């Protein structure tokens, strides 16, 4: 356990570094250098510029928030795309949940699979055939009819792509022609019946179909806009896309021909960007916006005392982690070095300092709310002497340097990326390791993490479907579009593929527990925390239900 006096000094150093950065016009201290392509994006001057922009947006938002039928949702960062299949980024799904709908979806308050564009379905005894019966009379936002051929079009589009284009389609084992591909064919039986033939059973097939990326797009809109479709989305959902001003706001309006009677209840939804957590919360208190995410845990107690604001807890189904990218030319490729750094992370004290009781330490690679969680794993306890010993054994007793990247926007699992990175840097310095802190704009951050350009990085994951596969395989499986560390272990990967094929839940659970032991020995990450994110809304907002997946449509929300 870290002595409290040491932690206090460490935190003071972190805050001082932030202050120095503000005075010097950079994100980091004098010993840190920003990459050339990120020199402007990472500067304090841009933060000031964003602050001015946010202030201007607040004026517009204040006017909109005063509209009884317009919801203004303030968040810390912008979406990176509006075609959800093309990204793995949560700010995208937060918006596209309102534009697109899939064949099936999740219940409002759980990850139970319920009907959406398909009102019913049948599964063959061998698990290789799924037949979906579609709702009739549904139209896309461009006025074209939705039918079985549109489902075929969407899946043919994704199946014939690759992980770079459609990273989430790797949830189905691979693309057309690849050995691991789960989906063999998708055919229209008639106008409102579609049949999926699988190459092999997949236990998570329906849960995967329920996820945000697999919403149905208008084929005509895709053909009309081509590569620009990601900024001109057309679905069947409760709200239609109006405009997107990058880093400022996304505007949606009510779908007047929505197929569910009486919905949505709002006329318009505006997703605006206010990067600073405190400024975002102040906008809510001042009535300039209606909903804010990314609330500082330190401010929750104060919010609960405000009669004009309600605090809503999002069910915890996430993990924040420090990832080590494999395959780069640095000491982090040595497992003993990764284990040494794992022993040098004071998780409990990070939680005490930055989460205020709204998180618990992570000991493995998935949250305890997911079936298959291995509660016998204790993780790597905080032990600086053990860390130094491992560095000596690895031949790095005199230390080394590496770049540690942190997110420029608040996320549910990492609410204050720079401050947490500062603490990690100080702790690593205690064992003779120098971590040079780096950051860049959010969209580029995700791209560079995906490309393997970082030595180490802070990131996290909010579960998409409530299944262990969505953590262990999606984040660390070979070929997965969200395996940013490029971790490869054939034994581990085969275990996860076997668990996908098995339909007996208890057998799957045992495989996942064993798989966690395997990956724990390789230490491609330092699992940091599982947080309980908070959403704050105006006291006049009703019907808003935060979902465990981190994204929810506002179909049933209304302002009283």
From TrEMBL:
Belongs to the bacterial solute-binding protein 5 family. Residues 29-60 have a biased composition (Acidic residues). Keywords: Signal, Transport. Residues 24-88 are annotated as: Disordered. PANTHER family: OLIGOPEPTIDE-BINDING PROTEIN APPA (PTHR30290:SF9), PERIPLASMIC BINDING COMPONENT OF ABC TRANSPORTER (PTHR30290). This is ABC transporter substrate-binding protein. The lineage of its organism: Bacteria, Bacillati, Bacillota, Bacilli, Bacillales. It comes from Piscibacillus salipiscarius. InterPro entries: Peptide/Ni-bd, SBP_5, SBP_5_dom. SUPFAM superfamilies: Periplasmic binding protein-like II. Residues 1-19 form the signal peptide. The keyword Transport applies. Residues 112-477 form the Solute-binding protein family domain. It holds the Pfam family SBP_bac_5.
């Amino acid at each position: 356990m870290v002595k409290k006096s040491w932690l206090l000094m460490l935190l003071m150093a972190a805050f001082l570094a932030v202050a120095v950065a503000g005075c010097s016009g950079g994100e980091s201290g004098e010993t840190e250098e920003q990459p050339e392509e990120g020199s402007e994006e990472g500067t304090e001057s841009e933060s000031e510029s964003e602050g001015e922009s946010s202030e201007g947006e607040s004026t517009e938002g204040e006017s909109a928030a005063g509209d009884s039928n317009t919801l203004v949702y303030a968040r810390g960062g912008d979406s990176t795309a509006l075609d959800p299949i093309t990204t793995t980024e949560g700010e995208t799904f937060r918006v596209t949940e309102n534009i697109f709908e899939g064949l099936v979806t999740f219940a409002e308050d759980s990850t139970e699979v319920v009907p959406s564009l398909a009102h019913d379905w049948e599964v063959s005894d061998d698990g290789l055939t799924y037949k979906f019966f579609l709702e009739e009379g549904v139209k896309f936002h461009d006025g074209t009819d939705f039918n079985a051929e549109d489902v075929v079009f969407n899946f043919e589009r994704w199946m014939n792509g690759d992980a770079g284009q459609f990273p989430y389609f790797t949830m189905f084992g691979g693309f057309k022609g690849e050995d691991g591909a789960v989906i063999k064919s998708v055919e229209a039986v008639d106008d409102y019946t579609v049949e999926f033939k699988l190459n092999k059973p997949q236990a998570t097939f329906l849960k995967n179909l329920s996820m945000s990326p697999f919403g149905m797009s208008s084929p005509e809109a895709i053909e009309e806009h081509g590569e620009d479709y990601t900024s001109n989305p057309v679905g069947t959902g409760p709200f239609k896309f109006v405009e997107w001003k990058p880093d400022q706001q996304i505007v949606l309006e009510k779908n007047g021909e929505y197929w569910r009677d009486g919905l949505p209840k709002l006329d318009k939804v505006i997703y605006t960007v206010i990067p600073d957590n405190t400024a975002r919360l102040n906008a809510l208190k001042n009535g300039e916006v209606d909903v804010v995410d990314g609330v500082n845990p330190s401010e929750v107690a104060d919010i609960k005392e405000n009669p004009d604001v309600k605090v809503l807890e999002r069910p915890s189904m996430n993990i924040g982690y420090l990832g080590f990218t494999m395959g780069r030319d640095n000491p982090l490729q040595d497992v003993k070095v990764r284990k040494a750094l794992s022993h040098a992370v004071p998780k409990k004290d990070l939680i005490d300092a930055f989460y205020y009781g709204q998180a618990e330490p992570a000991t493995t690679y998935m949250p305890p709310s997911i079936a298959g969680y291995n509660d016998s794993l204790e993780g790597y306890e905080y032990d600086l002497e053990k860390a130094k010993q491992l560095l000596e054994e690895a031949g790095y007793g005199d230390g080394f340097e590496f770049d540690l990247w942190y997110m420029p926007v608040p996320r549910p699992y990492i609410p204050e990326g720079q401050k947490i990175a500062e603490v990690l840097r100080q702790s690593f310095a205690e064992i003779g390791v120098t971590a040079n802190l780096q950051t860049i704009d959010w969209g580029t951050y995700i791209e560079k993490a995906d490309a393997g350009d970082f030595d180490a990085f802070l990131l996290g994951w909010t579960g998409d479907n409530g299944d262990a596969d969505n953590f262990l395989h999606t984040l660390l499986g070979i070929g997965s579009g969200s395996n940013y560390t490029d971790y490869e272990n054939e034994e581990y990967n085969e275990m996860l593929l076997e668990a996908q094929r098995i339909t007996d839940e208890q057998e799957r659970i045992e495989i996942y527990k064993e798989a966690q032991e395997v990956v724990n020995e390789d230490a491609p990450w330092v699992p940091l925390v599982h947080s309980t994110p908070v959403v704050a809304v105006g006291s006049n907002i009703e019907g808003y239900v935060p979902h465990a997946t981190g994204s929810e449509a506002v179909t049933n929300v209304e302002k009283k």
